[in-house]
Amino acid sequence: MGIQKVKGSLEDLIEKAGGCAVVDGGFATQLEKHGATINDSLWSSICLINDPDLIKRVHLEYLEAGADILVTSSYQATLPGFLSKGLSIEEGESLLKKSVKLAVEARDKFWNDKKRISGHSYNRALVAASIGSYGAYLADGSEYSGCYGPNVDLDKLKDFHRRRLQVLVEAGPDLLAFETIPNKLEAQACVELLEEENIQIPSWICFSSVDGENAPSGESFKECLDIINYSNKVSAVGINCAPPHFVQVLVQKFKELTGKVIVVYPNSGEVWDGRAKRWLPSKCFDDDKFKLFATRWRDSGAKLIGGCCRTTPSTIRAISKVLKGPALSSSVAFMTILSIFISNHLFHAGNMATVSNADK
Ligand SMILES: [Zn+2]
């Protein structure tokens, strides 16, 4: 296996960003802020049908905030999902392509405007086509349990992902983002599919985690990453939509388990009350806390950092500034982190919870 030089390589972007590139933040969160109703089996992807202009607007907001990578609105967009809405296969495929097209158009518009301005601090962003896990399609929370039941085997998972993967790649994204993968079996399905389809753009595979130690299925990350490490089609591995206080330890763990780029984009740590269907007001990470911890994730070895559920352009602006700006003096950083640790420790005693769904 040699080092694969592929179009729009992540490594180039990371270098241009100064060693750590910024991924965008919560997509559904921002759509909702603008008034979109996404309480639907397609979740944020319903806006591909109802309000594509809003999708573009949110992409532009994240670019303006400093995101180096846009993740498309296809997380919960699947062909079976579109068929269940009464759409044809052709219409479903066209919507999948549209998710990439909207992000590419936003990126190109933004970049064409910015590159005329001398001294701007932006990079030309990459577009990552989001591929949510099988559990995200089921919309039953299994992306956080990893329990797909006895009838789901490797072939079923590959069959589920194959056509969507082909269609998204045809639409011309810069990379692929497999998100909230909850178990080893689905990681293996993704790896084998990339090989079988001979995909020539880089990919990352991100796992969720509900205990801060293992994949949601209870399988160790060593087992999961051993499979991915053999693939030269996967450029980066990491964590998304886990609470942010898990992330530093997981980055350190991943650093020991893989030589691949590490990508993390946790949620804000807010707690979803599934029964009441609302976000509980909790001591989640505000932007200041998020950005300080982002520097620790970077210092531990993460090279792609962003946000998932309940993070916003303001979170991304904060982390972009701190990750690309001048380093914080170590004593100031230490004191700030110490005070955050103390307040966090007090809060989290006996309060462990996660969000219910990924935010893409
Ligand atoms: Zn999320």
From TrEMBL:
<dbReference type="InterPro" id="IPR051486">
    <property type="entry name" value="Hcy_S-methyltransferase"/>
</dbReference>
<dbReference type="GO" id="GO:0008270">
    <property type="term" value="F:zinc ion binding"/>
</dbReference>
<feature type="domain" description="Hcy-binding">
    <location>
        <begin position="9"/>
        <end position="323"/>
    </location>
</feature>
<protein>
    <recommendedName>
        <fullName>Hcy-binding domain-containing protein</fullName>
    </recommendedName>
</protein>
<keyword id="KW-0862">Zinc</keyword>
<dbReference type="GO" id="GO:0033528">
    <property type="term" value="P:S-methylmethionine cycle"/>
</dbReference>
<feature type="binding site">
    <location>
        <position position="308"/>
    </location>
    <ligand>
        <name>Zn(2+)</name>
    </ligand>
</feature>
<dbReference type="InterPro" id="IPR036589">
    <property type="entry name" value="HCY_dom_sf"/>
</dbReference>
<feature type="binding site">
    <location>
        <position position="309"/>
    </location>
    <ligand>
        <name>Zn(2+)</name>
    </ligand>
</feature>
<keyword id="KW-0479">Metal-binding</keyword>
<keyword id="KW-0489">Methyltransferase</keyword>
<dbReference type="GO" id="GO:0009086">
    <property type="term" value="P:methionine biosynthetic process"/>
</dbReference>
<feature type="binding site">
    <location>
        <position position="241"/>
    </location>
    <ligand>
        <name>Zn(2+)</name>
    </ligand>
</feature>
<dbReference type="InterPro" id="IPR003726">
    <property type="entry name" value="HCY_dom"/>
</dbReference>
<dbReference type="GO" id="GO:0032259">
    <property type="term" value="P:methylation"/>
</dbReference>
<keyword id="KW-0808">Transferase</keyword>
<dbReference type="InterPro" id="IPR017226">
    <property type="entry name" value="BHMT-like"/>
</dbReference>
<dbReference type="GO" id="GO:0008898">
    <property type="term" value="F:S-adenosylmethionine-homocysteine S-methyltransferase activity"/>
</dbReference>
<dbReference type="Pfam" id="PF02574">
    <property type="entry name" value="S-methyl_trans"/>
</dbReference>
